[in-house]
Amino acid sequence: MGNDFVVPAIVAVTLVTVAIGFYGLRLARTTSDFLVASRVVSPTWNAAAIGGEYLSAASFLGVAGLILKYGVDVLWYPVGFAAGYLALLLFVAAPLRRSGAFTLPDFCELRLGSRRLRTLATIFVIFIGWLYLVPQLQGAGLTLATLAGSPYPVGALVVAAVVTANVALGGMRAVTFVQAFQYWLKLTALAVPAIFLALQWQADGRSAVTPPDGSTFRTATTVVVEQRAVLTLADGQTVEVRPGDELSFAEGEPVPEVSGVANGATDWLLPSAAGSDDRGLFGTYSLILATFLGTMGLPHVLVRFYTNPDGASARRTTLVVLALVGVFYLLPTIYGVLGRIYTPQLLVTGQTDAVVVLLPEAALGAGTTGRLLAALVAAGAFAAFLSTSSGLLTSVAGVISTDVLGRGSVRGFRLATVIAGVVPTVLALNVSGMDVSQVVGLAFAVAASSFCPLLVLGIWWRGLTDAGAAAGILVGGGAAVTSVLITVLGPGLTGWPATLIAQPAAWTVPLAFTVMIAVSLATRRRAPADIGRTMLRLHAPDALRS
Amino acid sequence: MAAEDALPAPRRPDPAGASDGPVGSGPPARTRVVLAEVSRRPHWPAGTHTELTQQTRVGEALVRGLVRAQLALALQLSAVVMVGLGGLPWLFAIAPSVGRMTVLGVNLPWLLLGVLSFPFLVAVGWTYVRLAERNEQDFTDLVQRPER
């Protein structure tokens, strides 16, 4: 597929990112500048930076892909990704900022005074960070392969190299500016093509998204299958296809039904109903729990709060972030829905994550407009990979440099960045075939089952003890990690076990809370003696501080 | 001024110690310096908020009250979200006809989840920020009132 605007657009985004990084480097003189931007970041910049960091490949590519594939039930992904900030605002934002904790391990030590708990938290931060980095790099590989025809590893390696170098050299100060810029770039890159797409859809006579007798191919299409599936053709015949198979469809031919995808109008258009689809309903609630409660436990989200000057501004910043993120999430739905009309072949190939980057050319034709818009989308997608990976890498490198290498120096941080960047790159080169959003969803489930109970109980309940916190993280987080490993590596399960493992949050989050509370009550004597002072510090209004 | 007698504030060794942290006497606890300002204690203006910093019963009760008020507010607003958003899958499941309703040609679930949920979340967040700041203002007024 030759779109000669794509590579220049991606190069431009990368260069601007690096350029702002070096500008930041010139400004970053002290270790404090380097790691925490010296807290001179204004709230508006900060909110845009948080939004820019948060809107990852999963939001930019994955959500639209999932909507194309599964329909209304996965609208809970964008809703949950946004609602996570509300949970963060209600339960965590201001007290966490006042605590002065920079990372989750800091919070553990500060609230419970336990070095061992700190180590446990460090392990979880690194696991979640890497689990979240892999799909970013995967998305980069997929985008470049789809649009520029490069081999899959190229995109992943480019993003990994740029981000590692940028974080290692520029530090947090640079990252803040880069990310604020990237929020607006991502919004533009989805919003402008969305307007063109909507107009084109009007001009095409507002084709039905779910026509009564099934979707059809609008043009003659040749499809190369990428994932094993069973197709049910229009005449009722079933065909098993393997990766590499080529299928040709004539113009107006109906799109075959694909196994594992919401095909019919009712399936795609309507929510899971009780009785017929109890597992779907369980999955929905599990997803809601994971995304609502997982955001607060993501390492790169938490680090940002330290850049607010005080608790009240942390609250206000979070509210602005919620609004910015909400505006962004209006857009992927449009791509997912129009993808049903213009790019039905993705359902057959299984590469639904590519819908956002393919849709402009598919709908508007391969003329200059279509190609320019495709390049804009590709630039936005790259901004998504770069910004989220930078944030994740900064926080993983931060905990590695302080807690594993045991140095707080700039050199230590640089070394840690390289270590933190290499591991997910290797992983990303060796896994493929999973939906980007689903991997990210698993990272949310782990965060919701480990750090969410720790933060919520730590901030609001005096009775939490270090033993309780450790037990809750080990049991709840451990169960979620096990589910992730089974999903990614293990045998294919069917029925209820498959649902419980694929969307674990609905049982692992309550489990984590229960264990944490029960063990804390049993070890009541271990509660920190200075809890009164800690609570005062977390909750007293900023006006009372000098 | 009976309460004043109970306060150990005048026993602080020197003014420098008072600005250093809430615990003015005794050897400072060993602290590990990490990335964050973990080791930094908040600085309180001497005198006015001694009840809070000296952990008197009154101060303790005040802080407990504030924490309880803020937690109640957060829980109430999350209940609003739990009913408003969390009830939707259940509603669509037990009353499939609701899911089939269309508004302006769009199925209701798409409209509710894809569009309206976001302003709803922002509105809840805005309400929380306002009310939480009001709770804090009440607390500040209470603490800074010269006579009780």
TrEMBL record, chain A:
Q: Return the InterPro entries for the record.
A: Na/Glc_symporter_sf, Na/solute_symporter, Sodium:Solute_Symporter
Topology with regard to the membrane? Multi-pass membrane protein
Q: Which UniProt keywords apply?
A: Cell membrane, Membrane, Symport, Transmembrane, Transmembrane helix, Transport
Q: Which residues cross the membrane?
A: 6-25, 45-68, 74-96, 117-134, 154-171, 183-203, 285-307, 319-338, 372-400, 412-433, 439-461, 473-493, 505-523
Q: Give the main location.
A: membrane
Where would you find this protein in the cell?
A: Cell membrane
Is Aminoacyl-tRNA synthetase one of the keywords UniProt gives this record? no
Pfam families in the cross-refs: SSF
Organism superkingdom: Bacteria
Family affiliation:
Belongs to the sodium:solute symporter (SSF) (TC 2.A.21) family.
Listed name of the protein: Cation acetate symporter
TrEMBL record, chain B:
Q: Does the keyword Transmembrane apply?
A: yes
Membrane-spanning residues: 71-95, 107-129
Superkingdom, natural source: Bacteria
The UniProt annotation puts the region (Disordered) at 1-28
Keywords from the named record: Membrane, Transmembrane, Transmembrane helix
Q: What is this protein called?
A: DUF485 domain-containing protein
Protein source organism: Micromonospora andamanensis
